């Protein structure tokens, strides 16, 4: 594997690192994986996950990867403009794809992101057909009746929860958000300013389009109050029939920032395996009747105890 | 600014060079990061400090030690002495790129301890600035272990892994060889062997800071400043919030503005 620092754009460049597999291990010379920022953490990723993943993808899956900072994050200077951060993210990923396409002749891309990075990968995939796959960690998903049950049932039986609810209703305790949670003065603590979730119907329609286009999607969900069981994603977006385009992995004990080494190891391994299978299947014509030709079928691990 | 790799090919280092933007101060600055989650949360502060100092006329190099950030490898087999070597590579790189004879070292937390060791006997170092320094490697490790054990008692899965002794703390690992070499580092001993001016700029008061400043206050070239600011670099929330302790960054900038080499 070989790494080099790359500055994309002449004025206020986007700073990134290109990792390329050894020539004899390159499984897809026309495909690159682009790793996106999570929140305001710079491109090395939460607990250095993006660096570990980028190198694993290059070494084990034989794929080139590019991790970079969006403008205004990490080492990339802020750019002035009228776009929202969400719109600018899509434009910047496309700028990176153009750059890598001209320079290295990549014409197919897999986008990876955690949280806000996942949202950006989804939106970019909708806007750009060069994207053949997305890897979304804690990407868009909404509650279902079953997740509500799994979330609220234990709380209904908890006296302390009822007590807290009463105190909140009486205004005696307040739910803290953003910088408030840290106890650090807001002016000395920067938290990501995430745009609100889009309406579920909008995401459902977007996923339907991507699915019809044959986009391969790997979703990985961690333990949180929103995602409660393995099939919640499919239930949430019914009746979209993802079939083999979709792989969902649920790690209910892992934290959102993947703070535990064995969780990071498992996630990195499953992403590299998924990417390797995707490349294997898309490098050859598909003969099983798939219209899109981008089908991939692997087994999702599910350690959800529910 | 210019981002690039430098150093030996087997342990290449990621660096960002901020060339001076005004009058040449004839001195460059190398920034030395803290460890683990602290490094991640301090990235913005280190970058902003680099930009501000470059605007004052200092060329600045910030970099990732081997096994961290975008630099080569992970920490398996890496020791604190390797990080000292990395600082030495960064000093040479800064001298070459900025075309200046001397380099000031600024170290945050563990970075101050590593920088102090690198500053000993290095004729290219002009001064050492310690920002909320870790005063004792052994105490630092003890504090980390205590925090992990306390978190375990509260249900956290974080733990000290056995049998190889690697510590997993706040999402980052520190293998045993690193711990063993780190536990030998004591700032009071290192600082007394540093022959260049030393500044200790702190965001809060602790017994360790006080003891260190009392020891160093006997030196005529010692500067101390308390610039109250948030300092919990290990605070981790689920959305990746970043500490931005502007008052102490301003204090370091003012120190460099008023005390040119």
Architecture overview:
- The complex is a heterodimer of chains A (306) and B (261).
- Chain A is an alpha/beta fold.
- Chain A has helices spanning 49-60, 85-104, 116-127, 145-156, 159-169, 179-182, 200-213, 232-236, 261-282; strands at residues 2-8, 14-20, 31-35, 64-68, 108-114, 131-137, 189-190, 216-222, 246-251.
- In chain A, helix 1 packs parallel to helix 9 (261-282) and helix 2 (85-104) packs across helix 3 (116-127).
- The radius of gyration of chain A is 20 Å and the shape is globular.
- With 261 residues, chain B is an alpha/beta fold.
- Chain B is globular, with a radius of gyration of 18 Å.
- Chain B has a single domain (2-136, 186-258), classed as Alpha/Beta hydrolase fold, catalytic domain (Rossmann fold), CATH 3.40.50.1820.
- Chain B has an eight-stranded mixed β-sheet, sandwiched between helices. A two-stranded antiparallel sheet of chain B has the order 7-8.
- Chain B has eight helices and eleven strands.
- Helices cover 39% and strands 20% of the residues of chain B.
- The longest helix of chain B has 19 residues, at 37-55.
- The interface between A and B is large, with 43 and 39 residues.
- Strand 7 of chain A pairs antiparallel with strand 11 of chain B.
